[in-house]
Amino acid sequence: MTQSLLQKYFQQPDTLPAEVAQLVEQRLVDEKVQAYAMGDLDQHKRFTERWLILGESHLAAVEPNGEWRNGSTAWRLTKLPLVDIEKWEWLEGLSSSRLNLIHRDGKLLASLQFTRRQSRAMSNLQFLAEQTRDRLRAAEKPPERAAEIESAEEYREAVLKAVFEAKSTLAVPKMGVMMRLLSYLRPHWRNVSIGLSLAALLTGLNLLPPYLTGALIDKIIRPAETGAIADPWFWLWMVIGALAFVWAGGEFFSYLRLRIMALTGEKIAAQLRGQIYAHMQKLSLAFFSARSTGSLITRVSSDTDRLWDFITFGIIEIIVAVLQIIGVAIALMLMDWSLALLVLIPLPLMTWLFYRHSQRIQILFLRIWRKWSAMTGVLSDVIPGIRVVKAFAQEGHEIDRFEEKNRALERETDNLHETWTRFWPKMVMLMHVCSLIVWSVGAPRVLRHVLSQGAEGMPLGVFIAFTGYMWMFWEPVRHLGMMSRTLNRATSSASRVFEVLDTTPTIVSKPDAIHLEPLVGRVTFENVTFNYDGIRNVVKGVSFEVQPGEMIGLAGPSGSGKSTLVNLICRFYDVKNGAVKIDGIDVRDLELSSMRRQIGMVLQEPYLFRGSIAENIAYGSQHASLRDIITAARAANAHEFICGLPDGYDTIIGERGLTLSGGERQRISIARAILHNPRILILDEATSSVDTETEKKIQEALQRLVAGRTTFAIAHRLSTLSAADRLFIMEDGKLVEQGTHEELLAKPEGVYAKLHRTQLELQALIAV
């Protein structure tokens, strides 16, 4: 799959060319290829192929031996010992980058130019090469990288990462998406069948007026001139009554059809909204970190609304149009096959033109969606952070930022309308040309019929009926052309919805997962290694065991892996090597929801939902009574300030709790954790952003909260960890120290002791 995608979107090899692989095998004798990347530009920024290939002790730079002309069979290889490469120098440009390999003595060994799409593969290669070089220099294997890497697959995934993350915004086959969307009609087959039957009946009724008009002229009015009909007035009013019946019946059937399909479309749209939102809840954190909030909101809201519009109006309208084209074509052939051919012959050409046009505007709709998503992203960023905007007086800047996205959206829609308005008049003119040809052929035949007194030619009524049917034929053709816009918007929206629904959750419970309730609280890490990108390990061989009820303080420099450790305990991610165990059982073998219900978190920035204070405290414990909620609030030192609010526990707080102070939000978060009654508790900088008095109240609440629970507390202010039973000190993804506060301070050159001295010096400066 990745092979075909790489060739389709980037028109480049999905693996090393056979000649290059053979040359590498000859020159890098007995060395396994660990990774490779391609520089796709030459020194003149023309497309080419230049490969960097990492062996076990050498780096091979392979380039065409001569000028590149859409492929080359002659290659030149330069063999570079890894231990001689001192520096990888990146020079970033607007659309491309350059990588220079520098020798120990400062000499330039090699230089590669490449586009942005190759950057991730090149970065991964650099990381692996540097780690291999360090291993060779130190004669040991560092644990910074993942153990096993398949070079070809790693290269393809690195280059295609952007494609995988944005696959729903690429031009996808419409037929497959449409068939899948139509499958949602299956549970509503009765309503759909009624709608289709009404559509067919409506099509049949619409075929009658031209026939009745022709009959009125040829069977009633013309015979009345010669007295050939006994009671022309009776038949005249019969035809008029029939026309009234047809039109009234048509409107009634149209009303029934629209009502039935509107309700059916709303049910399907609601089903899709429910499915996509429920599926999002199952997806891992990695999914949300790779996508903007605005794009996800658009999928649930506007995309499903467009699908409702298509199901309600589009599907039946298309079917009605097709049925009408078929019915009218039959009527035209029955009336006069020679004139009918003049009407039908341009249809294949028009169909091809409509197809070409729909392919173009599908791309335009995708571009519009991207701009719309970017504009929505600005809203989702700014509205929750409006306090910061006003604090820095950035209203004007945010207006300009929104207007920039808004104008970009307007430009894309202008491109769409320009394309559409250029195309559609040409199609209408083609229809008029066909009509003129029919008139040029048919009108003389009518005149001959009059001059010959009916001996030859075409009767006037037949010709009038024929022209009526002709315009009835062009009308659904025009309608189908107009519907191509709706169809393209629907397929674009459906592909984005299905992209989310097709995303496989990476963190799931096994079919035979163990329900462990209640947890005792013993947490064990056994040589745990973890990385986010499959290459760079951010947790490196960490092992420890925490006893039930023990409080562990996690400290260390920023980026040392503290938050990653607690994420692994909660199983927000799965380890790459080793195991995380709770009560002696690997967390991957535990039932996920059951385990997480027994883990509580108090974050640095507590998240409160819009609703009452009582609802926020009871979040995660929905069946808690008001007495339990108040008890938890008292334990969190929150009851006093809650009672001072206008509506007490029923006070509605704004989105994310912005109507409360930071300390008040934190205490509500602690009350929520107390009511949740977890067996394992995680505190992530719970007192980092509050004043001293508030911190004292929060610390008192935390002491009640941690009692009898296994607790992991992350803090940069080391004074807040003095009550911990043990301290784990992380540095560069490794557990470098552990012990009590006093034990670690007794190591003056240790990481913890240095951090402690630095904070004391900083506090002394602040005091001065």
Account of the 3D structure:
This protein has 768 residues and is an alpha+beta fold. The chain folds into 3 domains: 164 residues, Roll (PH-domain like), CATH 2.30.29.30; 303 residues, ABC transporter type 1, transmembrane domain (ABC transporter transmembrane region fold), CATH 1.20.1560.10; 150 residues, P-loop containing nucleotide triphosphate hydrolases (Rossmann fold). It is built from 24 helices and 19 strands. The strands form 5 sheets. It has a 6-stranded mixed β-sheet with strand order 13-16-17-10-18-19. Strands 1-2-3-4 form a 4-stranded antiparallel β-sheet. A hairpin with a 5-residue loop joins strand 1 and strand 2. The longest helix is centred in the middle third of the chain and has 57 residues. The model has no long low-confidence stretch (mean pLDDT 78).
Structure, briefly:
This protein is of the alpha+beta class and 768 residues long. Helix content is 56%, strand content 15%.
Percent in helix = 55-70%
Strand content: 5-15%
Supply the helix-strand structural class. Answer: alpha+beta
Radius of gyration: 36 Å
Global shape: extended
Oligomeric assembly:
single chain
Mean pLDDT: 78
CATH topology of the largest domain: ABC transporter transmembrane region fold
